[in-house]
Amino acid sequence: MSGESFPLNLPLPRFATDSCEATDLYRELRKPLLRYLAGLGLSTEEAQDVVQDAFLSLHKHLAERGSPRGAAPETRPSKTGLDGAPNSQENIRSWLFRVAHNRALNYQTGYAKRMGEPLDPVFDAASSAASPEQAVLAQEKFRRLDQAVRALEPQERECLMLRAEGLRYREIGEVLGAPTSTVADTVERAIKKLAEKCNV
Amino acid sequence: MCNFSGRLVAWMDGELAGDEAVEVEQHVKACAECRACVEEYEEASQGFAAYYDTTTQTTRAAQPHRKLRRWVPVAAVAAAAAVIVLLASLPRTAKQAPPIPQVASSQPPMAVQPTIKPLAPIHRAHVAAHRKAPAANWAMADPAIQIAVPADSMFPPGAVPEGVNFVANLSLADGSVQAIRLQP
Predict the structure, then answer these.
(1) Helix, strand, coil % (nearest 5) of chain B?
(2) Domain ranges in chain B?
(3) pLDDT digits (tens, 9 = 90+) for A39-83
(4) A139, B15, B109, B111: which one has the fewest Cβ atoms less than 10 Å from its Cβ?
């Protein structure tokens, strides 16, 4: 048996041969991606389509590429240097969020609509408190928070959503195409705005 | 306003480098104003997390309902098809359990004879409340349809009683299970 038949020395990325890892990633990241897209105003069906597309893109990149430097996943260029396919486990998360985020830009009308309309079902959910007084308090708190969130700039909202998904500032920067320092400032500003309006 | 006030959220998020983090931490310990800010930011942060979770869950909740509605008639058709097959091959009782546990298990309400121990405690009140009437009726009434239910679909692994089968009596109108009885 010849040593050449073993692909050990080929320049394949280490996860390209590991389909189990891709499956784990899908299990782990599908829900957060769906949640983020729902937060951007996509319907369940739209969000599912986008997530499926994103994982298909990932699969394609992993299957096609011989080196970590491939074509940019989306037409919108990144300012942070994450200009190719993901090249590490950690980068895959921000890469997927970035692809999903960029695809979601095609559904801008949903985003505008969502932020322009009150979320009645959520008010119902808040009213399931133990006592009527608590329900009133919860509803009032939610109403203030809702207003405060709607008053945020889109990028501030996106930063907070990605932060709530557990992404680091660097990853958020990769998703939104912004420097990490800008993300830090944006998160700080957004949290301060919410604190001012809600913790009165 | 402190010099540190612009770095508090980043510090809370663990985004500051080692030295800077230590510096801010020491300051927060000493500065009551910054401590109050950190508490406020923490509250706002948790509030947003709950808001985000709730609002995105609302959107996602629509999906299962739609799916359920689609599957109800499918389940009924599947039940009817299974019944026809069963009636053709097993006119009265089934010696061998056919592999269709989902048809029987997805059909409430079910009534069980006293000798059968229900799987989950949550069903007990329900079973106790309803078991008398069907138990009295099933022996006399000639059920329109019977389906054999595999015993291992009703008991956890290792607890399947040997030598018994379950027969579900179904009504034709809605395909729901009227009774499940034990048959040696």
Answers:
(1) 55, 10, 35
(2) 5-56, 90-183
(3) 888 888 889 999 998 998 888 887 776 544 444 444 343 333 344
(4) B109
Rounded to 10 degrees, the C-alpha dihedral B71/B73/B74/B78 comes to 130
Give the whole-angstrom CA distance, residue B146 versus residue B152.
18
Residues B139, B113: contact at Cβ < 8 Å? Answer: no
- Which of A114, B89, A5, A128 has the alpha carbon at shortest distance from A136? A128
DSSP classification of residue B124: H
User: How far apart are the CA of A64 and the nearest CA of chain B, in angstroms?
Assistant: 33
DSSP class of B112: B
Rg of chain A on CA atoms, in Å: 20
Pairwise CB contact (< 8 Å): B58 & A119: yes
Indicate the average pLDDT of chain B.
62
Judged by average pLDDT, the poorest of A45-59, A117-131, B141-155 is A117-131
What is the set of domains in chain A, with CATH numbers? 11-117+152-198 (1.20.140)
d(CA B21, CA B3): 14
Interface residue A125 vs chain B (CB under 8 A): yes
| Terminal Cα-to-Cα distance of chain A (whole angstroms) | 75
Residue A137 is predicted with a pLDDT of 78
**A–B CB contacts, 8 A cutoff, strictly below:** 84
Q: Is there a contact between B60 and A44 if contact means CB atoms under 8 Å apart?
A: yes
Mean pLDDT in residue range A122-145: 71
Q: Tell whether A184 lies on the interface with B, counting CB pairs under 8 A.
A: yes
Which residue is associated with the tokens 């203030």? A144
Q: Is A177 helix (H, G, I), strand (E, B) or coil?
A: coil
> What residues contact A122, with CB distance under 8 A and at least 6 apart?
A142, A146, B54, B55, B58
A141 part of contact set with chain B, CB < 8 Å: yes
Q: Which residue of A has its CA nearest to B53?
A: A35
Distance (Å, whole) CA A10 – CA A66: 8
Strand partners, B167: B148, B181
Chain B residues contacting A, CB < 8 Å? 6-10, 13, 15, 37, 40-41, 43-45, 47-49, 51-56, 58-60, 62-63
pTM of the model: 0.56
CA distance to partner chain B, nearest, from residue A163 (Å): 9
Taken as a whole, chain B contains a residue count of 184
CB B48 within 8 A of CB A199: no
